[in-house]
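Following up on my earlier thread - several people asked me to post the actual chain instead of describing it. Fair enough. Here it is, all 191 residues.
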Amino acid sequence: MDPGIARAGFVLVGGNSSRMGRDKARLPFHGKTLVEHVASTVADAAGSVTLVGAPERYASLGFPMLADNRTGAGPLAGIHTALASSPAAWNLIVACDMPGISAPFLRSLLAAAESSEADCLLPAGPSGLPEPLCAVYHSRCLEVIGAALDRNVRKITDALAGLRIAAWSTPESRWFRNVNTPEEWTKYTHG
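Reply from S.P.:
Thanks for posting it. Predicted structure:
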């Protein structure tokens, strides 16, 4: 970790999009792809962005890329890959399928994490459920997440056991509403 770099941003693009039936990262959205929209928003908020997933699928988009260091282990492995390569203390990690995120929301999330004593900050909407795929992780999380992966833990919130987790309540869930099926995508894009 470089002590001069406080923040970094990452977008997870490693999923198979099996419920969508096609690569949801490449869905058309506001004149570009969904992943380009999310990556640009993350870069605006964090000052940098790196895609974590299959370089052969996304290298042509022009963003820095990291291959998952543990293929087939789900999004937790993507978070681990991001943290293992990050020069920053605080790391904004967002899934590629959240079209509603905004840079001001993500900047607020980062600021809340940086002013906390936590190891990670997980936002929660009105349901109260944590959103670990639109969250901020300190580099201190790396070892605990790696150990969880070694034990075949795949659920992100289970992997964070023992870490100081800050919940960040927000009255809206639109920021991190994801799209997994053609029906969800149609509903999102057509109101």
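The longest strand covers residues 7-12. That should answer part of your original question.
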